[in-house]
Amino acid sequence: MIAALLLVGAVVSPVVASSDKTIQIDEDLRVNAEVLKVVLGTSTPAHQVNIKFGEYSVVSSKVREGRQTTTSEFLNPVAHTRIRNYFTFVLKDAASTTARVKAEWNILSEKPGQCLEIDLGIDVDIEYCLGDEEPKPGLHDLVVAAVQIDGEAASRWTLLLDVVRSESGLTERAGTSFLTDGSRQIVIRPATSAGPAKNLLDLPARGFEFWEAGQSLGAVQYYAGGALGLNKNVVYLRRDIDPQLKLLLASAMTAIMEYKLEALLDYDD
Asked: Could you tell me the pTM of the whole model?
């Protein structure tokens, strides 16, 4: 689907191909946010996650892919697969404070009631169970990431992002997703642009918004809609929150963007 969109986008009129969309976010956030354009740098073997926006930049990174397991129940012809991908990166802000992120991205064929054990090896050990509803066509993405901010030895944050997407990438829905340190919980909600898609070139912009105690803290747009919206990412961060919280949110948003970039490669495969 991605390749087809790029091909079609090359032959449609410039006006249609370049018409960007913007996710709808909370109005208070829109008024009070820094709007940061994301630069996706060239990936190299030594620097595989190369993302920059505003004062934030990935200074080291690593990606490891492809641990696949297949299971099936006795006398059940349907097999269920789990592909485990890993990525790590260090994000630095203008004050040279760093956040270290270690993430596991699981790709699952949906199986209601299935429970997964995820151990990132740094005091993050999660057992996550899929819902009991009937399975739907598509792939289930579960991203779990541990975030450690410099100087905060007692405060480790965990990102959990739960997304079900069609194999073509045309549709997706988000389940329960959040960022937590065990006492605070920042809820992550999907955000899109207004209006239903009329055709393949009219897909909505997509992203996620971060909420705590009824206030929107920030948002990330990882897709700008249409045929040419794949590398037009934008980050929104409230100006009135402290630098450490900004770095935490920036780290979680970077992990989401990295997962989405890898998912686009998965669509092509």
From this structure: 0.82
